[in-house]
């Protein structure tokens, strides 16, 4: 397959250096690099993250009673002028 690649300057310089060092063609070096890189990319599994846990702190019972009813809590906190 014939294709055109646009390489960043640093990648092109590294490619040319490897070609000179190995006395190999650009085609063979690019193919080898792509094979190795694509194999590593395909085999890469997601890194397991350390599980995060929040510490539970006892704060005692609520001084406002039931906190499920927001209107009731605001009425107690702000007085009856809330309504």
Hey, roughly how much beta strand do the residues contain? under 5%
Structural class: mainly alpha
Tell me about the largest β-sheet.
none
C-alpha geometry: rod-shaped
How far apart are the termini?
Answer: 75 Å
Give the integer mean of the pLDDT values: 87
Helices, by number, come to: 3
H/E order of the elements?
Answer: HHH
Radius of gyration: 32 Å
Helix content: 40-55%
Strands, count: 0
Which regions are unreliable across 5 or more consecutive residues at pLDDT < 50?
none
Q: How are the secondary structure elements laid out?
A:
Elements: H1 9-22, H2 26-43, H3 70-78
How would you summarize this macromolecular structure in one to three sentences?
With 83 residues, the protein is an all-alpha fold. It is 49% helix and 0% strand. It is rod-shaped, with a radius of gyration of 32 Å.
